[in-house]
Amino acid sequence: MSGSTARFDEFETVDWIHDGAKERRRQTEPQRHTEPRHQLLLRAYNAIESWVVVTLVGVLIGINTAIISIATEWLSDAKLGVCRSSWWLNEKFCCWEHKAGECTSWSTWDHAMGTDTVFLRYMAFVALGTVFATTCAWLVRVYAPLAAGSGLPEIKAILGGFVLRGFMGFSTLVMKSVGLALAVGSGLSVGKEGPAVHMGCCVGNVVSRNFARYRRSAARQREIVSAAAAAGVAVAFGAPVGGVMFSLEDLSSRFPRKTLWRSFFCALIATVSLQAMDPFRTGKLVMFQAAYDRDWHVFELVFFVIIGVFCGAYGGMCIRLNLKVAAFRKKHLAKWAVAEVAVLAAATTAVTYVNSYTREDMGELLSYLLQECKEGSKGWNNMCDASQASKVAWSLAAATVIRAVGTVLAYGCKVPCGIFVPSMAIGASFGRLVGTLAQMLHRAHPSWHMFAQCAPDTPCITPATYAFLGAAAAMCGVTKVTVSVVVIMYELTGALNFLVPTVIVVMIARIVGDMVVEGGISEQLILLNGLPFLDDMEDEVLDVPVAALMCRVDDVHVVREQGMVVDEVRRVVTTDVRGFPVVDDVGRVTGYVGCRALARAVADAGIDQSATIAFDQSVHRAGVLQLSALVDSSPVTVRPQTSAETVIEIFRKLGPRVILVTSEDDGQLEGLVTRKDILRHVRSQH
Prior knowledge:
The protein is α/β, with parallel strands linked by helices. Helices cover 57% and strands 7% of the residues.
């Protein structure tokens, strides 16, 4: 099997038509046998149940995110030191009642051991980071291999109509949560925002499967998973509207109005729950929320364009290089996943400790980079000190390169990992660098014509806003998501006056990124890992009839309308297909029957193996097992000359698992085609 379709067999295809029909029957059946006075109560329960599920999902996502945030902060600080009075507190809470520089409860590791040695701090940072990352990789490999990675490519495939068993199960949720805190806290160049979507979907799946209505219907479960995905993004960025927009723009293949409303409600509940937990004790939903009260000038558009071009180029090159790393990892390092993570963590922490900007947790770093300079303050790490501007610029340039290389190497290793925040940190570092250089230029040449708009005695250029724009552009460059990025960044800052510059840098980053590579990182990983996803084929031109793609009748397992015995049917249902065309004695299609339903009916009947089975409802003879109720008498059929594009549209719009191909004259079965057949043909052409 070619690499581009390597994982097709792990996924089962959902038949949305069949699933919808079953759900409608379930809804109408109780009402037929219920007294009129009780029907109103039944409808009220059905209406309330969905909101109960969405509320539970939102609350649990918010709580889970808060716990992970607290654990991540503690692990990140644990690499640097320990709170002597209360070891379970991170540095911020250990020194909560002390002014900066006056806290005696928090000790670096060398001071805790009674010495004052920089090398000991360095070794503790590297050793603990390596231990955290290695522990994470081992736990994931042993207990939940599906928890590795970001999970976004698989979520897109699942929402597109495929099922991957165990991917959204309870064990995956637990290991994703534990592993994510360890991975981010270790210092690897990975983020928790992408995996937050996977964890949200796990919560949605685990909760909804406790309700029969959702357990039996894939369509209804997809509504909950879509809502949970939106809530996952919402709590990751503190942006409920942005979360819904991201789910709509990048994740969900189908997003009806009802799903939109429930997604917004779920995202709202999740963010309120996170706010109630207040994991940072700052009142902020995420660590790097910021606010700006200054405006921008027209001449700054030149610098904004530079930021957009760089971040678009970074996004495209990051995708290209990461795909090469992923291919190398699959080919040479598959058996050494834990060792690879250990080496990667040791190398990353050894390098990042040297630079004060990369030593910090990326969320905390973003909070520093996005903060405006207060008058009279030197800021964190002297970023606001004019005399240190040159040194700050060099440090930011080095941090940008270090984080970019680390992200390319780390994203996709066998730990829970995301790429959103690492990319935002890279973009923010570069943006702050550009802003610092622009500020230095203004200080050196304030009389230049381009600075004529600057008011006297007030700051003209705000480097923090450049960092903000760089973060937005870099996230767009990697994900190729535009509208939701703008909304998320607006919700993070409330900077309405910077809405136009944000749109400009995001669009430039998208255009430049598309010049380097088409599609975002998730779409490229879908192709590389061989995941089935049909909705990325909008630009594909298949100038072939469906007859060129179908599985021909000689290779198709069929069941006859009459004349089959139980033993024959039992042999047929042991094959690895999901259903069978039903044909009459001359090969004309009369219906389609599912494999599982057929196997269950034959097993429950408990009759002799030589007994006859009939799928024709007109047959009513003694000793014949009548199974016509299992047959879908109106399956989706097309003619052999039907274009492949038409078949793709049928799969997209109607969602059948299989389309039968019948002859024009007499309706005889000539073959069948599935979504996977279409995808195999398309990917074989690339």
